[in-house]
C-alpha cells in the first residue's frame, strides 16, 4: 500500500529479484469525462539520470491540456547508474508506457488535482483495478515476453494489432525491431521493442514514447472504424536484461559481452544442468555447434587468487556444445 500525500509519494524499494534493480516508467491513461493532470515523465527521468545514487520513487502531477486522466509510477530499486550503460541506464531496467486506446470527448473543465492509483477508491466507492500485470513466469523462448516471439492467444483482433505495430516500427528503419508481442483476451497488448544500435538492445525513453504515441494513434483510428475494439490497453517496454538470447542468431550480436549459459553435456532427459559465464568463441554453422570460452569474471576465478586474472589453462579452455544443449542464454551484467 502506498503511503504519504496524494500530491507526492515516495517509495523505498527493497532489492528486487533482479540484483540490478529495475525502473518501471509508466503512464496509465484511462477514460475520464473530467479534465486531467498528467505526468512530466521526462523531467522525473532526467532528474534520475543526473544522479549516481539510488533514488526513491516519486509520484507528482503537472498540468496538461490532455482529455485523459493519468497516473505516473516511477520505481527505482536498489541500483546505481553506470557509465557503461549510460544511454539506457542498466538494461535490466524496465521502461513501460501504459496507454488506453479509449479517449474522452468531453470538454468538462472540472478540476482534478490527482489521479488515484489502481488500488485506490473512485468517487462512486468502487475499487479500481486499472492494469492487468503480466503473469510472472520463467521466461521461455517464444513466450511473447522476456523470451521474445509472438503470442496472440487466438484473440480475433490480434493479427490486426500486430500488423499495425510492425507498420509503425517500419518507419524507424532497421534500428528498431519487434522483440516480443503478446495480446490477451481481456484486451491487453504487450509490446517489447529492441534497439539494434544499442549495446544492450535497450531503447531510450524517448524511443518508447515515440513508438507508443504513434502506435496508439493508429489503434485509435482503427478502433473508431470498428476494425478492433476501442478500449484496448497497451504496454510498451524494452526487453530488459532477462531477455533470452536465441541460439545462434543473438549470439553473434552480443559476442563481445559475457553471457550466462545454462547447458547440459548429454542429451539424456534427466541430465543435470550446469551453469557458466562464457564468451562466445565461435560458431560451427554446419555442425550446429557453439564453442564457448571462460569469461574473466569473479565467478570463474579461484577465490584464493585475490582478484588475479584467469590462468593460461583457463584461458585456453573451450566448451563445445550443440545448439540444443544450450538450454538458456542471457546477458551477464555485473556493474
Key phrases:
single chain; 335 residues; alpha+beta; five-stranded mixed sheet; elongated; disordered N terminus; RimP_N; cytoplasm; DUF7912; Ribosome_maturation_RimP; ribosome biogenesis
Please write out the topology.
Blueprint: E1 23-30, E2 37-38, H1 41-49, E3 62-63, E4 69-76, E5 94-95, E6 97-100, E7 149-151, H2 158-170, E8 176-183, E9 188-195, H3 205-224, E10 233-237, H4 249-253, E11 259-263, E12 274-284, E13 289-294, H5 312-316, E14 318-322, E15 326-331
Parallel strand pairs: 1-5, 7-8, 9-10
Antiparallel strand pairs: 1-4, 2-3, 6-10, 8-9, 11-12, 11-15, 12-13, 13-14
Query: Please, what is the average pLDDT?
Result: 70
How many runs of DSSP E, i.e. beta strands?
15
Largest sheet, spatial ordering of strands: 6-10-9-8-7
Percentage of helical residues?
10-25%
Structural class: alpha+beta
The main β sheet shows up as: 5 strands, mixed
Q: Provide the low-confidence segments as ranges.
A: 1-97, 104-129
Number of domains: 2
Strand % is 15-25%
Based on the structure, what is the oligomeric state of the protein chains?
Answer: single chain
Calculate Rg over CA atoms: 22 Å
- List SSEs in N-to-C order: EEHEEEEEHEEHEHEEEHEE
Q: How would you sum up the global shape? A: elongated
- The number of helical segments is 5
Cα-to-Cα separation, first versus last residue: 31 Å
Give a description of the structure.
This protein has 335 residues and is an alpha+beta fold. It folds into two domains: 23-115 and 139-237, no CATH class; 249-331, no CATH class. 16% of the residues lie in helices and 25% in strands. It has helices at 41-49, 158-170, 205-224, 249-253, 312-316, and strands at residues 23-30, 37-38, 62-63, 69-76, 94-95, 97-100, 149-151, 176-183, 188-195, 233-237, 259-263, 274-284, 289-294, 318-322, 326-331. The strands form four sheets. It has a five-stranded mixed β-sheet with strand order 6-10-9-8-7, covered by helices on one side. A five-stranded antiparallel β-sheet has the order 14-13-12-11-15. Helix 2 packs across helix 3. The model is unreliable at 1-97 and 104-129 (pLDDT under 50). InterPro entries: DUF7912, Ribosome_maturation_RimP, RimP_N, RimP_N_sf. Residues 107-137 have a biased composition (Acidic residues). Pfam families: DUF7912 (PF25498), RimP_N (PF02576).
Amino acid at each position: 500500500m502506498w503511503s504519504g500525500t496524494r500530491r507526492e509519494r515516495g517509495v523505498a524499494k527493497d532489492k528486487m529479484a533482479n540484483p540490478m534493480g529495475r525502473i518501471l516508467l509508466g503512464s496509465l491513461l484511462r477514460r475520464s469525462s473530467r479534465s486531467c493532470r498528467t505526468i512530466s515523465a521526462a523531467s522525473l527521468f532526467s532528474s534520475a539520470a543526473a544522479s549516481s545514487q539510488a533514488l526513491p520513487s516519486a509520484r507528482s502531477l503537472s498540468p496538461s491540456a490532455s482529455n485523459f486522466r493519468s497516473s505516473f509510477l516511477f520505481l527505482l530499486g536498489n541500483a546505481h547508474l553506470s557509465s557503461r550503460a549510460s544511454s539506457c541506464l542498466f538494461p535490466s531496467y524496465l521502461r513501460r508506457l501504459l496507454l488506453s486506446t479509449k479517449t474522452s470527448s468531453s470538454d468538462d473543465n472540472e478540476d482534478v488535482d490527482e489521479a488515484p492509483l489502481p488500488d485506490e477508491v473512485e468517487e462512486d466507492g468502487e475499487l479500481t483495478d486499472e492494469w492487468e500485470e503480466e503473469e510472472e513466469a520463467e521466461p521461455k523462448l517464444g513466450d511473447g515476453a522476456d523470451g521474445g516471439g509472438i503470442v496472440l492467444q487466438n484473440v480475433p483482433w490480434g493479427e490486426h494489432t500486430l500488423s499495425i505495430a510492425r507498420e509503425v516500427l517500419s518507419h524507424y528503419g532497421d534500428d528498431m525491431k519487434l522483440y516480443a508481442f503478446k495480446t490477451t483476451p481481456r484486451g491487453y497488448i504487450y509490446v517489447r521493442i529492441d534497439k539494434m544500435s544499442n549495446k544492450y538492445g535497450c531503447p531510450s525513453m524517448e524511443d518508447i514514447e515515440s513508438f507508443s504515441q504513434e502506435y496508439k494513434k493508429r489503434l485509435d483510428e482503427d478502433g473508431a472504424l470498428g476494425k478492433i475494439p476501442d478500449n484496448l490497453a497497451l504496454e510498451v517496454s524494452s526487453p530488459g536484461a532477462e531477455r533470452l538470447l536465441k541460439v545462434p542468431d543473438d549470439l553473434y550480436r552480443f559476442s563481445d559481452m559475457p553471457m550466462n549459459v545454462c547447458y547440459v553435456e548429454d542429451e539424456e532427459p534427466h541430465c543435470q544442468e550446469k551453469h557458466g559465464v562464457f564468451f562466445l568463441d565461435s560458431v560451427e554453422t554446419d555442425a550446429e555447434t557453439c564453442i564457448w570460452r571462460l569469461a574473466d569474471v569473479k565467478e570463474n576465478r579461484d577465490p584464493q587468487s585475490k582478484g588475479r586474472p584467469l590462468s593460461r589453462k583457463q584461458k585456453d579452455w573451450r566448451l563445445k556444445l550443440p545448439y540444443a544443449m544450450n538450454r538458456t542464454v542471457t546477458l551477464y551484467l555485473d556493474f
